[in-house]
Design brief:
By secondary structure, the chain is mainly β. The chain contains no helices and 21 strands. The strands form six sheets. Strands 3-4-5-6 form a four-stranded antiparallel beta sheet, with no helix packed on it. Strands 10-11-12-13 form a four-stranded antiparallel beta sheet, with no helix packed on it. The chain is globular and about 45 Å long. It starts with 6 loop residues before the first strand and ends with a strand.
Length: 230
């Protein structure tokens, strides 16, 4: 994406298509999510929008909060999920952005709520029908469509910065205490900890024995015994 409109690049040809700048909200894009034929984006100004990936036609847009109060976005086939500074996650129909969460628009104006609250939603991650939500010191696991809990919460000693469901279905989390943690999400059992020299804000992938992270402009492959920068 560029600052004002999303773009799609064909990995085989390198050809890039950009959506026209048709949103009345001209603030920069804050987050982007892609699933099948739907592209969803969130602006700093609080606008949520969805495009058709084939044509890049704007399908719908709506205001979902005051400036900088929506913190992250995730997308399944039918539902757009938006995290907020007040720690809530709200759901919208990906076709027309009608609210699926009761009262989703009733309190959308969060003006006056301080930016970057300790309990704010930091990250939304989806794998299959499972949604991971990192908010404050906790990661929760819920059904992406219904919001119902699908397992115990993962509690941390400091603020959670990112989370990811690995290729082996464990959950990997990054915490402000300079530790990566690997969990069995079925019973919230901590399997491994990986110390890192500084807090990791983005986990890119996790496979057996290796966690790939973005660390201050570099990609790093981390394991239980070593940390190799590539």
């Amino acid at each position: 994406m560029n600052q004002l409109a999303p773009a799609l690049t064909d990995l085989a040809t390198g050809h890039t298509r950009r959506a026209p700048r048709t949103l009345p909200d001209q603030s920069i894009l804050w987050g982007l999510a892609l699933h099948d034929d739907t592209l969803a984006a969130l602006t700093v100004g609080g606008t949520l929008a969805v495009w058709d990936t084939e044509t890049l036609d704007l399908r719908a847009y709506t205001t979902v909060g005051a400036a900088q109060q929506a913190t992250d976005i995730a997308l399944t086939g039918a539902v757009v999920l938006v995290g907020y500074q007040d720690g809530t996650v709200r759901r919208y129909d990906s076709r027309d952005l009608q609210p699926l969460t009761p009262g989703a628009h009733a309190d959308a104006d969060l003006t006056g709520v301080p930016y970057d609250l300790p309990g704010a939603v930091r990250r939304l991650r989806i794998r299959g029908n499972t949604l991971l939500t990192a908010a404050g010191n906790t990661v929760t696991r819920t059904d992406a469509h219904t919001g119902e809990s699908t397992g115990p919460a993962l509690e941390h000693p400091a603020r959670v910065l990112d989370c990811l469901i690995s290729a082996t279905s464990t959950v990997v989390t990054s915490c402000a205490d300079n530790q990566l943690r690997i969990w069995d999400p079925t019973d919230a059992r901590l399997l491994h900890t990986v110390p890192v020299p500084r807090a990791i804000h983005t986990i890119l992938a996790a496979t057996t024995g290796t966690i790939v992270v973005h660390d201050h402009g570099h990609l790093a492959g981390l394991g239980p015994v070593r940390a190799n920068r590539v």
